[in-house]
What we know:
Elements: H1 2-11, E1 27-33, H2 40-48, E2 56-62, H3 78-90, E3 100-103, E4 107-109, H4 114-123, E5 133-136, E6 139-142, E7 149-164, E8 174-190, E9 195-198, E10 207-213, E11 220-225
Parallel strand pairs: 1-2
Antiparallel strand pairs: 1-3, 3-4, 5-6, 6-9, 7-8, 7-10, 10-11
Amino acid sequence: MRRLAVLFAALSLIAAPALAADAAHPSVIELFQSQGCSSCPPANENVMALADRPDLLVLSFAVTYWDRLGWKDRFAKPEFTQRQYAYRDGLKHDNVWTPQTVINGRVDVTGIRAAELGRAVTGGARTDATPSLTEKAGRIDLGAGTGKADVWLVRYDPRIVQVPVRAGENAGRTLPHRNVVHDLVKLGAWTGSAAHWARPAATPGLADAVLVQRPGGGPILTVLRLR
């Protein structure tokens, strides 16, 4: 109970909506973790506590490099590990680690300390002008702007999934997961001119969002939560 009280008190520091974010175009909170990492459950708990905020899109990416220590993460994919390595370069780090929580591709923390996470969510808010991003009748439209970006479709499970871990550092624990990413698909590249893409067919049980992001693990320019 004391831990929950401290957690909610810390998260209250970020109760105000982030700048340039709303329910349709939220700030993106990406947690890179593994079921084989003993340091990850506290960060997972803190990040999951943000998942109901309409101005935030919480995404949980499972990475593969912990699988060699006795427990293979059932959600891990090489492309998720590659995405974290892209952030290593974009955020000018020397290596990758778990847990790592990245806010809008702009700042990162481990996520283990709720107050630090709260400050990062505020500090990583998108404050610059962004191109328009909309979806209608199965077509995703991205307006004109400046520079280049990659356009990603991310598919995630909004439910809480309980995973019994039978080996590795978390052996004997049942770990809750939420907003676990199942697929990350590059729709195309944007060069500053207005562009559009067909929305891929939905996957039952999964939610979709579009991320427009500077190449090489750069900042996320805009986001669209698809309905």
